[in-house]
Amino acid sequence: MQFLWLYIYNGWYSDFFDLIKNPTTKILLFTPNPEILVRANRDTEFLELLKKATYNTPDANWLYVGSLMQEGIGFFRACFMTLFAKKKLRAYYGDLIKGSDLTRDLLSYASKTKKNILILDNRVQNIVSEFDQKKSNLQQHLGSLLEEKYPWLTVQVVYAWDISSDGIAHLIELQDISYVFSCLGMKKQEKKLIEIFSYLPLDTRVVGLGVGASIDFLLWLQKRAPLIFQSLGLEWFYRLILEPQKRWRRIYTAVVEFPRMIRNTSK
After folding, report:
1. Is residue 216 within a helix (H) or strand (E), and if so which, with residue range?
2. What does the mean pLDDT of the chain come to?
3. Is 160 helix (H, G, I), strand (E, B) or coil?
4. What residue ranges do the domains of the chain occupy?
5. CA-to-CA distance for 84 and 61, rounded, in angstroms?
């Protein structure tokens, strides 16, 4: 796959996981979805940040739709093929490699192999909603909650703006961190990881991932779509049903603006 001259990894999830679970050098991993690509199309700085990744992996079924459209297949036919011809599409374009799945599997692997992880998070400043309160409570106990869910895991939680990037890099080396999960949100998480990794020697054995709300899903702060919705590529529809006012803008970006962007950039 390729969008906006940005190469997207094409391969099997299991092979990719084997590639990153025991790194021999520092690896930066971003997981573009349609919303990220639409933003990058408008924001040159963000696009250049994504290009600095060691790997960009496909995070949503709509990337299949976009790839098919780039090959001249109409939008509705591309949607139909994405829903009903997944096996054929994956044989050609590779598996989806989602941030939420990588987060879950790397945490499980880190627990089994007693590896250390670091989480970069935003500190909740103003509590104006029930969600903010729940998020604040989760942050206060994030390390212990993850260690309870994943025995043998050693978790370090850092509020990204409280420590300088070189200070965080020093912490990664000092504590032999294997995986850094950046939960800062689109663009911020990628930019912060790039800054931190610029201070690390090339042979540092660490993976940095921009994972958004993946840890919130794992700890049930946010509910992930049931498996049937995930398998059909309709997670976006499930979220829209649950939170229409909160989600409609993001869904519109993925379902309407992304195909429009593909059509315009393919001309």
Report:
1. helix 214-218
2. 88
3. coil
4. 7-60+96-224
5. 12
